[in-house]
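In the laboratory, one determines a bound structure by crystallizing the protein with its ligand and collecting diffraction data. In a computational setting the workflow is compressed into a single prediction: the sequence and the ligand go in, and a structural description comes out. We illustrate the idea with T5A.
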Amino acid sequence: MAHGYPGTFLTLEGPEGAGKTTQVKLLSTKLDAIGIPHLITRDPGGTPLGKQIRRVLLTPGNPVSPMAELLLYSADRAQHVDELIIPALKAGKLVICDRYTDSTVAYQGYGRNLDLELISQLNGMSTQGLKPELTILFDLESEKGLGRLHPGGHDRMEREAIEFHHRVRKGYLELVKKEPERWQVIDASKALSAVQDELKQIICTAFGKRFDLSQL
Ligand code: T5A
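The predicted complex, in structure-token form:
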């Protein structure tokens, strides 16, 4: 394991409404049923401090400058990695995190046009250098994803202009191109059950030697 802990670290990424939360809930039920020690968590808001930061970041109408936004997502992640993710990896768990550093690159880097090198440095600092072993992109056209949500979007980020969401998706696709060995891409426009089957297959192939996933 590249990170040096006995556990396994998987992250899920994608634009708004791609279905990550729905899929990860289904997966967690299954992992519980077959007794795989795991932690399902999310960025932002995985810890008590993170929940407060999440509220600040996502409340519609809150004035948050792009740099303040970047630093708040990074602060949330620093706490999350330290308080929850590293201890779970030390305990040998399968850690599945709904959004991580690639969200910061896609949203604050490509979406807000903040400096990618600065983001890379902040990502390294906030995570103590902890990188996922595998990242799954739930890829979906922005219009389709937003169309699955409440009309007009619920939160501050969902309410951004469509051009912002296009840049975010483009950012994700660029990230896949830059580091194809770390990424798997799922076509998230497929039916829920087809997406779940593909997700399970990817996880079994990647981690089936470390955990008994034969019943997944
Ligand atoms: N952010 C986050 C940053 O800008 N920088 C960062 O560094 C980080 C970490 C987080 C926001 O913060 C931004 C990104 C986000 O804007 P969030 O609420 O945690 O906010 O955001 P999301 O992860 O995007 O949550 P969403 O709910 O918007 O998207 P999901 O989880 O991908 O989608 P889900 O599962 O909730 O599904 C949405 C709807 O689609 C339906 C579901 O039933 C649901 O109604 N659905 C499907 N419909 C048809 N076919 C399918 N296959 C479907 N799958 C789900």
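Residues 141 and 169 are 8 Å apart (CA to CA). Keep in mind that any predicted model is a hypothesis to be tested, not a measurement.
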